[in-house]
Amino acid sequence: MNLKEEFVRVFGAGGEIREYFAPGRVNLIGEHTDYNGGHVFPCALTIGTYACARRRDDRILRFYSLNFPEAGVLESTLDDREYRKELGFSNYPRGVIVTAAEEGYEAEQGLDILYYGTIPNSSGLSSSASIEVLTGYILKDMFGFDFDGIINAKIGQKAENSFIGVNCGIMDQFAIAMGRKDTAIFLNTATLRYQYVPLVLNGVKILIMNTNKKRGLGDSKYNERRAECEEALRDLQRVTDIATLGDLDEEGFVLFSDSIRSQTCMKRARHAVFENRRTIRATEALRDGDLEQFGRLMNESHISLRRDYEVTGPELDALVEAAWEQEGVIGARMTGAGFGGCAVALVREQYLPVVMDSVGRAYHDKIGYDPTFYIAQTGDGPSRIG
Ligand code: GLA
């Protein structure tokens, strides 16, 4: 598809039209740790969001998405800083523009932006963070703002938290803004220190398996999990001096977990603490070339998300449990927020066709419809492409 032609069709010709891309992301391990001061280990993908943008002479903002043509052109202005339900998907870019302005990066003129995303919606591969980081990048390029990828990621996260109302951590925006092909990012979310770890997989592929279940209530459950972790942290802080759950290791947790009054909050915190330690160990295993160990830790991660964090659900469990049965699968787990969306598996290349076929059939038998599979290609962060 020629995006510039589409842009002219929707917004008319004239002026300088620039073209951009930002990736989606898949998290290999470290789930629901990023708002608990723990580590995550995501990588950027080659699927993502494309956009064409042009500066205007006035203060009007116009957005159009080729993914939601029925919504038409959504129009607002730089001076309207409120979330508006009727403005649909454009609340994501609007949130970024408003947040950037609050941070001192004030757009002087309006914009026309056309988006086209190749990330399946509600897949847990971060289509919303992709559009946020992309918009931040467009602002930076169009108005010459002097901010780096980390600030762009922070603006995106703040837009999601304060404008959209999802209390997400920094993982998605960071993975997208800072992504680098053939690597995963080992990120300490408490300090934002990070390292690029080469994905040396030797004939092993990253297989993404989409439940095709729409996430529905996901956002409210997400905020609820976050609140439960905060409650556990407050209880723990009465007996030990920690700033986040990520400050505890397994022994520390066993020692102090009695102080957590609610059983539910205890389980949520147990996941956050153990998942953080698993992520550190998994990264070490990858650095040592020990993929088997990495795979075992992925499996443990899923079990903990199923039992303690309770964010998997029948669809993700069906996919992951079917994958565990297959020869050639080194490890499998849900990825992203959960409650639907995608799972991720490490699979030896020669087994891929059989794995997809068998998992697909087992899933269909149990759930009643088909999953979708993608072999992940890692990619770079946002860029101008035309
Ligand atoms: C969503 C959020 C992230 C992270 C994951 C769970 O993707 O946006 O910040 O919390 O869920 O690991």
Task: Please tag this protein with its features.
single chain, 386 residues, Ribosomal Protein S5, domain 2, six-stranded mixed β-sheet, four-stranded antiparallel β-sheet, 21% strand, binds alpha-D-galactopyranose
What do these coordinates show?
The chain is 41% helix and 21% strand. It is an alpha+beta fold. The protein has a domain at 3-198: Ribosomal Protein S5, domain 2, CATH 3.30.230. The strands form three sheets. It has a six-stranded mixed beta sheet, sandwiched between helices. Strand 10 (329-334) and strand 11 form a beta hairpin. The protein starts with a helix and ends with a strand. The structure holds alpha-D-galactopyranose.
The low-confidence parts are: none
Count of discrete alpha- or pi-helical segments spanning 4 or more residues: 11
Q: Can you tell me the CATH class of the domain at 3-198?
A: Alpha Beta
Strand content: 15-25%
Distance separating the two termini: 14 Å
The largest sheet has its strands arranged as: 5-4-6-3-1-13
Mean pLDDT: 97
Basic shape: globular
The CATH architecture name of the domain at 3-198 reads: 2-Layer Sandwich
Q: How many strand elements? A: 13
Helix content: 40-55%
Tell me which ligands are bound.
alpha-D-galactopyranose
Work out the radius of gyration: 21 Å
From the 3D structure, determine the CATH topology of the domain at 3-198.
Ribosomal Protein S5, domain 2
Largest sheet: 6 strands, mixed
Strand-pairing-aware structural class: alpha+beta
Written as H for each helix and E for each strand, in order along the chain, the element string is HEEEEEHEHHHEEEHHHHHEEHEE
